[in-house]
Amino acid sequence: MKLKEIKKNAHKNVKAHYATYLVLCLAAVLMGSEFSSTLSLLKQDNAKSVSGLLMHSSFVKSMTSLLPEGVFGTTNGVFAHVVNGITSGSFVKTLFLGLSTIIHSKDIASICFVVIGLCISVFYRVYIVNVLPVINRRLFLEGRVYAKLPLDRLVYLMRIRKQMHVAFVKFVKSIILTIMNFTVVGGVYFYYVYFLVDYILAENPTISLKDALSLSRNMMKGHKFECFKWQFSMAGWYILDVCTFGISAIFYSNMYRMSVMCEFYTLRRKEFQSAILNDTYLFEKPSSALMRNTLIQR
To answer: Which residue has the higher pLDDT, 116 or 62?
Structure first.
């Protein structure tokens, strides 16, 4: 299948589910999960993040006089600024003063607040931000086949009790990529090696960490440059995004690019044919008789 025809199919997918995809991609931007460049002007100041506080040698001393902003800083995204705005207000300062009064130590109260902030930041990053891309890819893949996409599918990982497992796999993947980014070309190479992990988890959230990484590695053998070419073929949309200050990304190009790459995964899955990837009805509609006699939630 030619890339031009594939992009045409991706456009049809976006057109059929435009409103749903707009909500999904906008949520990803606001939560700092994906498409972070779309609203680059709203990126969080690293100096106010939790990690910045922990790296500051005198953070305890500074907090004894005034609880600084960003204690509960999360990650890049609009929601991070909302959280920081709330936690820098009088409510948290009141809690801080109350805690310091109870334990009779502003230093210990400061440490407690930083630890709590760090825990919230890690939880948000690992359990929500890292998992959302998998959910989005699931819905985009379903949109290729099904006319309706109920938004309750957003919590399907929680329903099958696999959100924590998916978060763990994504966490390990992010650690690997972070380590590889310290090398000259390793970051780019391994980005494509494990490019399909999110799509694999979207199809089979029960897959083990080892199988998810191994399957992506094998499926991308000989196809890394092909994946790059697919992405590069959409360079014009990135230029348009810059020219429109991210407006075109919000209202079309983000969802279009994701839809195109879902087509890439679909082709790789069809060629690779792994027994682990066995969600047949993610790629083809069940028969009418089967839908009448089984409880398939679509």
So the answer is: 116
